[in-house]
Amino acid sequence: MNRRGNTLFVNAALVIGAAVTLYPLLWMLSASFMSNGEATTFPPHLIPHAATLDQYRQLFIRLNLGRAFLSSTIIAVVTTLVSLLFNSMAGYAFARLRFGGRERLFRLLLAALVIPGQVAMLPLFLLMKNLHLVNTYWGAILPALASVFGIFLIRQFMLSIPQDLLEAARIDGASELKIYWSVVMPLARPILATLAIYTFMTTWNDFMWPLIVLNDQRRYTLPVALASLVGEHALDIELMMAGSVVTVLPVLLLFLALQRHYIAGLTAGGIKG
Amino acid sequence: MKALRAESRAAGLFLAPALVILLVFFLLPVVAGFALSLTDFDLYSLGDIHNVRFVALHNYAAILRSEIFWTALGNTLYFSLVGGPLTVAVSLGAALLVNAKAACLKPLFRTIYFAPVVTTLVAVSVVFRFFYHPRFGALNRALGAIGLPQIDWLGDPRWAMPAIILLAVWKNFGYNMIIFIAGLQAIPDELYEASRIDGAGAWRQFRHITLPMLGPTFLFVGIVTAIGYLQLFAEPYVMTYGGPLNKTLSAVMLMYKEGFRWWRMGYAAAVAFLLCLVILLATAVQLRFQDKPERS
User: Fold this and answer.
1) Which of B104, B118, B173 to mutate against chain A (most A CBs within 10 Å)?
2) How far does CA A46 lie from the centroid of its chain?
3) Has residue A16 been placed in a domain?
4) CA–CA separation, A270 and A259 (whole Å)
5) What pLDDT does residue A272 have?
6) H or E stretch at A94
7) Residue B54, beta-bridge partner list
8) Strand (E) positions, A129-234?
């Protein structure tokens, strides 16, 4: 009896927790298919009376959110691909190449993790201004092309690649570049997948730096465009929900499709640290 | 010997791209940020760099004397000291539930609880803004349904920050939960079995096995949460823009407004460094706690 009660309690709590967690997302989705004003009518309801794509049409045709979608995609894809290359190269060097001062340099990088990014933002903006990169995609992309966290994650994983394997390849006369590309990278695929998903999501969701460096509407990323829409369309609830769906859905779907890689990799990085 | 030299040369090449990026776009700006905080860099300096003057610690002195800074710092600490522990507690609760032997459909619940973590903060802030709407929001309707008084969540100076904390807990508990689940699974079953033979109940097992064994996990989760929460920005930017009556103005938001709205960049850089100091302090305090685990 006691055990049955316990099972009931645990599962009931799980279901209630899941309902509370999902409610804001479900409400966002349902309100986005409502016509103007329906989300505020009484009684409140989760299923639209007559589902419509009006809000999405308005977003993409009149408010040009498609352009923000494109900006977000370009910035996130380029950042993910290039940073994956740079971080994996550095992570590999820290894990498996012997050079003087390796541990000290690595510790120095780790120490930089506690410095909040905002400390760098003011001079970074002035730097970008001097390089004429304000209001360009490069202004948003360049600072994210390497990250201490990414290097750390890759290094921890690559420590498990046996040194003998690399020595064997060297004796066979393979160049260091070839060893990295054809021996190490294929072995590192799981952690590369994790880091790729993580970087894409972080970049896609990033707000403060794009807000600072992209102040021309035509270059806005989705979060920046959405934040500026709130000001003008504060009362168009259904429209704002559609904008939120457009912003959230790509990363949410990506997560659902690839969550196995994502969650496993994150805990590995977190715990071993 | 020659092989080793070739290896270090290769290491240099492999490290170069990442290190150059980190150096040029992070470490140098941090150093430059400190230099900037010692100047009166403002809108006029933005036009002509010759207008910049060295003012030593004047910005810091001005900030420490200004009411708005202490308001912003107080709000940030309120958010972190209430929101942080609350998030960690909810995360641990969720982890215990998902990890419980009696739980069904574990992967499904884990996925659901983690979903808010991957959502876009700006977008869910927009959603919660309407969630908190005094007349149409779901929260007040729920309160009204059970006969509780209505609250103007984002308009009432007393409730705006709790409302933002609630959003932060919802958004972030899933991440810590994953870390806690990994920590829970690393606790050997024998410990629980041995204590069961000794007649320990569920609560005593939790108190004397689970909590102590999760020590390192708590440290990691605590530090990561504190560092993240002290940088509060997007939620108040979207939901309240720091209001009402500056009750949700965070330190980062103060920096943003001073630096990028009024272009008082020297002053803003000093705010950023003071916040950085608070974050370092918060990290050091937690590391210190971990050094002296309580014995029981």
Assistant:
1) B118
2) 29
3) no
4) 16
5) 41
6) helix A65-96
7) B39
8) none
3-state secondary structure of A145: coil
Q: Tokens representing B68? A: 């708005």
Cα–Cα distance, B242 to B229 (Å, whole number) = 16
Residue B61: Cβ within 10 Å count: 12
pLDDT for the residue B295: 43
As for how many domains chain A has, the answer is 1
Of A143, A113, A148, A270, the closest CA to residue A213 belongs to A143
B231 and A CB contact within 8 Å: yes
Q: Which residue, chain included where needed, has tokens 């990278």?
A: A185
Of B225, B266, B292, nearest in space to B42 by CA: B266
Least CA distance to A126: which residue of chain B?
Answer: B46
Q: Residue A49 in 3-state DSSP?
A: coil
- Structural domain that includes position A189: 56-272
For CA atoms A34, B131, A208, B66, the dihedral sign is positive
Helices B67-99 + B265-291 axis angle, to 10: 40
- State the complex-level ipTM: 0.91
HSE value, Cβ hemisphere, 13 Å, CA-based, for A179: 24
Superfamily of B66-291 according to CATH: MetI-like (1.10.3720.10)
**In contact, B225 and B165? CB cutoff 8 Å:** no
Does the residue A1 lie in any domain? no
Contact B282, B79 (CB under 8 A): no
CB A36 within 8 A of CB A58: no
Domain ranges across chain B: 66-291
Q: Which of the four pLDDT bands, split at 50, 70 and 90, describes residue B2? A: low
Closest CB from B3, B94, B138 relative to A27: B138
Burial of A242 (0-12, 13-18, 19+ CB in 10 A): buried
pLDDT for B3: 72
Backbone angles phi, psi at A272, to 5 degrees: -65, -30
Inside any domain, residue A168: yes
Instruction: Pick the residue from chain B with its C-alpha nearest to A180.
Output: B14
d(CA B219, CA B242): 30
| A267 to B30: CB separation less than 8 angstroms, yes or no | no
> Alpha-carbon distance A106 to A128, whole Å?
27
Length of chain A: 273
Closest CA to B58 of B273, B274, B267: B267
* A237, A39 Cβ separation under 8 angstroms: yes
The verdict on a CB contact (< 8 Å) between A251 and B119 is yes
- Give the model's pLDDT for residue B296: 38
Q: What is the CATH number of the domain that holds A124?
A: 1.10.3720.10
CB A270 within 8 A of CB B182: yes
β-sheet bridge partners, residue B39: B54
A102 within a domain of the structure (yes/no): yes
Chain B hits for A100, CB-CB cut-off 8 Å, are 8
Does residue B250 register a pLDDT over 50?
yes
